[in-house]
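> tool_call: predict_assembly(chains=three)
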Amino acid sequence: MRNPHRRRYIAVMSRSRLAVLALTALFVVGCGSSSNNSTSSSSSNTSSSSSTSASTGGSTSCTASVGMEGPITGPVAVLGEEQLAFAKLAAQDDNKANGTNITVVQGDTQLTPSIATTVTQQMISNSKIVAVVGPAGSQEVEAVGPLFGRAGMAFISGSATNSALTDGKNPTFFRVVSRDDVQGPQDAHYIVNKLHPKALMIVDDQEAYSTGLVSVMIPIFKAAGITVDHESVSQKQTDFSSLVAKVTPQTSVVVLPWQVAANAQQFGKNLAEQKKSAVIFGTDGLFSPGTFTINGSYVSSFGPDIRGIPSDSNLVTEAKAAYPKFGTFGPPVYAAEHVIDEAISTVCKGGQTPSRSNVLAAIKQTNESSSILGQPISFTPHGDLAGGKFFLFKIDAKGNYNLIPSS
Amino acid sequence: MSSQGPSIGVDEWVARSGERRGYSPGWDGLLERINDRVNWWLGLALAAGIGFAFGQAGFSSFVMQVAFNALLLALLAVGLNIAVGWAGLLDLGYIGFFGFGAYGFALLSSNQLSSSGVHLQAWESVPLVMIGGAILGLLVGLPSRRLIGDYLAIVTLFFGEAFVEFTNNVAPSKLGGPNGIFGLDPIRGFGSQIISLKGYYYLMLVLLVVTMVVLRLLDTSRTGRAWRAVREDPLAASLMTVPVNRVKLMAFSFGAMVAALAGAAFAAEQTNVFPTNFDTSYLILIYAALILGGAGSMAGAVLGAVVIEATYDGFLRSPHWAGVIFYGLILLTLLVKLRPWRRLAGVLVGTVVFGFVVYAIVHAISPSATAGGPQSGGFVADLVRNWVIVPAPKAGTIPAGPGNLEFAAVICLLIALVQLRGRWRSILMIPTIYLAACAWESRLVGQPSITRVILTGAVLIVMMNSRPQGLLGVRRVEIV
Amino acid sequence: MHKFIQELVNGLTTGSVYALIALGYSMVYGILKLLNFAHGDLFMVGAFIGYFVIQWFGGPAALSVPVPIVLLVMFVLAGGGVGALGVVIERFAYRPLRDAPRIAPLITALGVSFFLENTALLFFGASYHIYNTSDFIPFSSGIHIGALDIDMARIMVIVLSVVLMIGLRLIVNRTQLGRQMRAVATDREAAEMLGINVDYTIAATFFLGSALAGVSGVMWGLVFNSVWNYMGFLAGLKAFTAAVVGGIGSISGAVLGGLLIGLAESFITGYVSSTYTNLIVFGILIAVMLLRPSGLLGRVQLQKV
């Protein structure tokens, strides 16, 4: 900019020389890589195994890659970040336990179905990948289901709960969380029978998870004669004071089927600020000790709190190191990755190399008596979690989650 | 600010614009020369041939998906070019027309409305959707009669945002809300259904070529000249009896029609539509493609779209290629920008030696600080092993590591580099390059998804700075 | 009535934050005619600086120094730091394109926005960082009249915004720098001919505008607690809207636009339906634009012939 003439002079002078130099550089790089190939094959092997920290078993190499699809960037990166950390953690633990060499390959879907399609094609085209964890959103599963089906590749979601996904159209789809039509009615009946509100507010966050639950719950409330105020705010919004001003004195319950715990925490703060006494009732998307800590709130969850289970204490320590404030999105992805890892290991132990078809077959046979989710994992023919049930927690003044015994 | 020559826009500058039409120096000029010498129609035929051959080359489904995405983006950029490049109207609601086309096709050609007896064949619904898009474009363009410049931009932006809000919240039983609409009909052509990805790739190629031919004819017609006249000076144009308002509306309308067509094809390929597919982030990509390629040039729009998709969706998604691009860009920048030759050689050799020396020192002091090894794979890793410092990985992945500090330091050094001149600049370049490699190997490669977007941002800044008019754009006179 | 006042206060708080961001946006626009899409991300950086200041002083529940000092440090560091960042961005991303087609800096601005958002993601992770303002500015310290409750943090934000807006007005209208800014905004070349250091003036404008974004980021954190790397996108969009609706380049217009949007959101959520808030707000704004094509307080542009 400062001296254009000088630049022009140099650039014109040197085009031919530049070409020569570029060719030389290419040649050098090419030589370097080819000469390195013979000597460095051993070193690259050690590096790959050290990065996955397998190398304990000493068994014959059982090597495979597992894809992980989630919103790693974009407005809901908070979800994908936790999921990715737990998928990596599970692979690391299972490699140690089974002597396998499984690597996690991440794919960023930004919770957008069209991007998930591209990422899925990438996963399918990578022949090393035998199965996929994710994608996170129900709408993404809807978009990529046929692709995975055609490729005969299993994919296990840790957060897609839309009931319609497992009506048989996605033969390779599995999930380790229960459907909306399990959680929705259970929560709604608890609210109706135990909390006896005259009026309640239910706020969806304009995402598939939320609207799915809302559409299941509202009819139950209406049937019980409760006045329902159905509101809707974008997941990206973090100011709820105007909405909270709408909470009437008769409204004793606010149902938040949300996925971002920090938003529910802010909603609670807005309630306190305006001295409203309504109680927040969150669905499993809000189960997040350490982030959502509003005193007196209820939260349902797909499992008991693993922080309270003695046999899981090692895992909890590990998980806290990998992702300090983990909530509801990590553990199911851990479980999903674990199911795939076990399937790969089973295939290897049977003397076969893990391929998409035999990993898929092994996943169908999954029968874990216990899991990180605090309940056994096996799948129905359509890929649903068999016998999934929900647990309900009440948060106390210190922010602890206390299990409410089911009656 | 250059002190030589008149400033852009003053009368003298305008008068001398012919001189400047000469080519830029260096590689840029070569590109411009080729772009000028090759006949437009020949170029199109050549590009179409390459596109056809690409489809035949037997690439994986991922490559074909990226190629389809690139053609889709190219079609959208070509459509956007009508309003933005030719008529000079900043249309930020363009994504809404794309969404309208997709949703229109989804509603007409699926079982969504079959309860009310509407389920059309694709050959019926696509023209309907295009006509609808054109009418919508006309309506959205109406404010352009009164609003100019950025005031028009904001009103169209409202339209785009409102479209997403509308599909998300209004009439969930018909529009599906966030769950969208799925199970769309495939497009039928010549008696057979298109179901494969490759089929849609060719369909998109045909649509793009046909659209470009039509728009080329339009561009070289009276209407095209009127658009450019309105862009350059609406007042002068109206004095020359150009019907300014009608011409603006036409630009909006044609653009919307192309976008609606692209939307229908996109929806058919995906077999579903969701509101999040049509939010602002995709609009940004379309704009980036058009402006990077050169607003006002159709070939530029296509080139821009191909460059953006190939890097953003293609190469950068693969950590290995991301590494090649990263190191390649540094090397290329040095090769092209650093003169005289001995300085270039000095910096290159200096960087290599500097790296080995630093590595040896750090390794001697604390072996754990170098225990990590490069995280990228392939020959890149072999080249930089025992050269970059990568500490042993810690258990946690999220907390800030030394890689973050290195990255921050690289940015600070880059800022310092621009301020320095002469010898000091070359000397400072050595640790900067070395530190960049360290930050890359210890932090950025481990987070490929985040790195992808960071690199894209950096590439956009650098490319626009080095060629403000876009790859194939013409430096045109702008009256300020 | 209580609800009305409550919603009024809510709207004023969000509105004044929007207005502050819009002010910076409008200043930068006025001088360079540049849609600075990275402005919202500067706001995000400011919010993060505020968060780390709180952590540095021992966390919200156990601050080691009195609250006013913490607040002062937050605002000064966020303002100064983000202001400096703004100057750097101008130097690297916009200055080389000053004479380029108007649409070119739009793309570098997007590039800067990508870069900032995702560098923050790389550094701080995606999780929401929480200010927990109520731990050091308790709700009880606010105004309580009957059923009406106004948080102290909100009062502070509204007052500080008004002070900053008046301050900015004084700078622009009464100081040497302000005169230079207006001169450069009106005609850069003529200003240069009169001996005004254009580069310096533009850098100073960027500093002021970005500093306002940084300060409003801290305000946002104080009132709405959550801070995360993508918060700038939505805020930037709102600020852009506010600046344009108010009349680009007009300081009072930006304030008016910000308040209008904040109040409209608040009242529509409170009295109509949260589901359609954004749709209705867009509708209102389109109507405003159609009635006043140059914004609420924008001057009708005289066309140079």
